[in-house]
Amino acid sequence: MLQLAGLAIARGGRTLLRDIDAVFAPGTFTALMGANGVGKTTLLATMCGVLAPASGSVMLDGADIATLDARSRAQRMALVEPTEAALASMTVDDAVSAARFPYHRWWEWQPSDADHAAIGDALAATELTALRARELGTLSAGERQRVWIALALAQRARIIALDEPTTHLDLRYAIETLTLLRRLADEGAVVIAVLHTLEEAASFADRVVIVGEERVLADGPPALAFTQATLSAAYGIVIEVEARDGALTFRRKTTRPADESAGRE
User: Fold this and answer.
1) Are residues 214 and 109 part of one domain?
2) Does the residue 17 lie in any domain?
């Protein structure tokens, strides 16, 4: 379980978010949402121990994450970022195999049966098995994004945090990626993903956390978090929300200029 208590984050001398209290339990898929620049990516990195909070704490299974070494964190948490750097000449297989480093001491690297199984399962789940011998420099942006997700799966972490996991993916792979994340949550993982598309979050996440104005604007199931008032506050535009056939639909509300409608009955 991941718990945030009184968390505040700041970058460049500016506070982005403050007074964040939240618990992320196993078996949940949380969509982290908000306008660009409000601190979603920074919050995600802070939750994973990559960045230190300005105040407050991040607790992982009852232990302050600041007290855990990188190896211990990596065995329990995976952070997938779309801008991860990699050597162009590295193969897909080598990149995904790197996820198993936290399970070995640096002087005793010898792949085990568990390593082979984790790597094979991750490649199969992301449909990369046929590409495992390809160099990363020869892949499309979408294929590389799937490599980073495969790396997180091979890590076998129970907390998976992803920053815009559908970036660069076409519709098919975006849906398949979100379906995979939904399945991982259903199997007991904690999945937290920064998403930008309201429809994706409404369809796949069971919880939505919307941040803005230096705070949490909404936290709950999509049907409760996605309100016209909250979305207007978060994004600065009026978005109409409608429940139709068991699904949420979204539409930007447009108003007719006053001078255009003047004199009409």
Assistant:
1) no
2) yes
219 lies in which domain range? 1-76+157-237
Q: Please check whether residue 245 lies inside any domain of the structure.
A: no
Q: How many domains does the chain have?
A: 2
Q: How far apart are CA 27 and CA 212, in angstroms?
A: 26
Any residues with CB less than 8 A from the CB of 166 and at least 6 apart, and which? 173, 174, 177, 178, 195, 197, 200
Q: What is the pLDDT of residues 143-198, one digit of tens each?
A: 888 888 898 899 988 999 999 988 888 888 889 889 989 999 999 999 999 999 99
Same domain for 94 and 213, yes or no, is no
Instruction: Look at residue 6 and tell me if it is in a domain.
Output: yes
- Tell whether 258 is covered by a domain: no
- 54-66 pLDDT, tens digit each: 999 999 988 999 8
